[in-house]
Amino acid sequence: MSGRLSMVLATLLACSALSLVNAQYQARRLFIEIERAQAVTRQLEIEWSQLQLDQSTLGKHARIEANARRDLNMVPLTPARTQYITGEAR
Amino acid sequence: MAAVPRPNPRRATARGLPFSASPLLDVKLPAWRSRLVLFVMFAAFLALAGRALWLQALSTDFLQKQGAARYARTLELPATRGKITDRNGEVLASSVPVKAVWAIPDDVLEAPPEKLRALSALLEMPEAELRKKLDSDRNFVYLKRQVEQETVDKIMKLQIAGIETRKEYKRFYPQADVTSHVVGFTNVEDAGQDGMELGMQKTLAGVTGSRRVIKDRLGRIVEDIAAVREPHDGRDLVLSLDSKIQYIAFTHLKEAVDRFKAKAGGVVVVDIKTGEVLALANLPTYNPNNRAILTGAMLRNRVITDTFEPGSTLKPFSIALALDTKRVTPNTIVQTSPGRLTIGTATIGDSHAHGPLTVSQIIQKSSNIGTAKIALQMQPQEMWEMFTTIGFGQQPKFGFPGAVAGRVRPYKSWRPIEQATMSYGHGISVSLLQLAHAYTIFARDGDLIPLSFQKLTAPPVGQRVITEKTAREMRAMLETATGPEGTAPKAQVPGYRVAGKTGTAYKIAGGRYVSKYVSSFVGFAPASDPRIIIAVMVDEPSGAHYGGEVAAPVFSAIAGSALRAMNVGPDSTVTSIIVPATVPQESM
Fold first, then answer.
1. Nearest Cα to Cα of residue B178 among B239, B237, B254
2. The domain B76-122+141-238: what is its CATH number?
């Protein structure tokens, strides 16, 4: 009887040990994955601020004005040529 | 049948004797020999136990450290400096990761010469200079800092032993020289040096964190072994600037400074409803992205850190005080003939004799004598209190580094001639921003609100300085100054009614007035319901020097474009401005 009990316990112990190994392995794998995801986040954040910078550089008013004048032959508006539309008072 | 013992191959003896019958067992050995063996074994165990005790208990710290050194790493977690944006979210300053390239000189010098030549080309550095840097006893020499990632990749491809990189940040300013004086710049260590970068250094700067981890054979992080000290990125800063209005102000100021070959110029645009600074530009300026050639003159923020004698732009405050204390009304007649007035031993004068003028006309024509006569009816203390309340001579609380207080001398030492000249802006010094700030009392029905360089969520509470009636009367007077009869018809804006005051002052050099001028104009628009105050200052213009000639047109150009940009409807049907052939010259 006691022989069988110790057999069962020994099997359980072995299973537990194996599952511990597995759990640790899974934990490390997930950890590496989250690390990688965080690195991607950082990279994307950097890219985003780079793009924001580009947007600001390309949207510089000096550049827009130069392009409008040179390439599109635009001129600044004057009130004499402006039709003002005022909304009805509510 | 007798049992014949089978021969056992494992039998100890060759003679077929069983072990128990071995005669050797009968040999009597001395007892000390077995005791010796016992003792030696015991001693061996003792030694093992001692060793175990030594390893486990006494030198654990050292051993654990040695172990950790083989798998644990401390990583620095960098924090990014906060962005600076304008009120509409347009980026004015942002940090981008770059690399610092450093070297271990002895290792690098062993590299073949052609590789060093390639390196010096990539670093944009003459080879001689590179070699000079490498000629060092130290183990760590910065070759170049803030190198962009692309270049770093090329450098690493050369595979020179002893070349290493370190991560750092570089600040970029997309609007370059247009916003440089407000935004400021940072140094190579990413610390603010000027402008809002310096003023808000504490909130902009991030706090670097760190974490201790276990790395596996492949260099991957597998586990944290201590609590992570989280990095905190710097907070983003939203300025009150509107980059569109900033650009408008900058270009028109530049036009005027170029046209009059002026030494310098400054302009500030303030939102009257909230006290936010919408634009602030200075010339000469600099490009914060490339500070190789940087002079003191370029760096100076003339609007905030320079003071000047404001001249006639101060007259409205003296007159407003007289109106407020009911000493005069806008229609009170003051005799300004014959255009000179002697107080004590000194004589002041107008540019030409105007004869009898109403108080309103004194502002319109900018008469020194009229202003002085009204001012002399008042107590020095009253005037001093007025100037002090609106911020002159007081340390400003603009939240901007280096803002100056200007100078208003204590009223007890005022002589009558000084009181008279101070009433029209001489013998007193203010900054252009202080002047713009003070004009909020006229533009806002009599109360003064604090200025802000950061975008506000709620309008601030004002502090009443003059009555609403006085403010309205003064607005009407200031509007006539920009009329055809006034000193600044060139300040008129098609489509909008404007109000403002010109100022022209001699500069002081070596304690004496010299024939160099500061032309200024402070005004607001639209006059019917003021939205913005614009203050313009041009330093040492040549060709013309009156505020009405030099500064007023800048005001006009900025006001027209800025109001349209802000979507303010026109309050006047006039579409073309009439400038009379002869503009009355203001007095200095």
1. B254
2. 3.90.1310.10
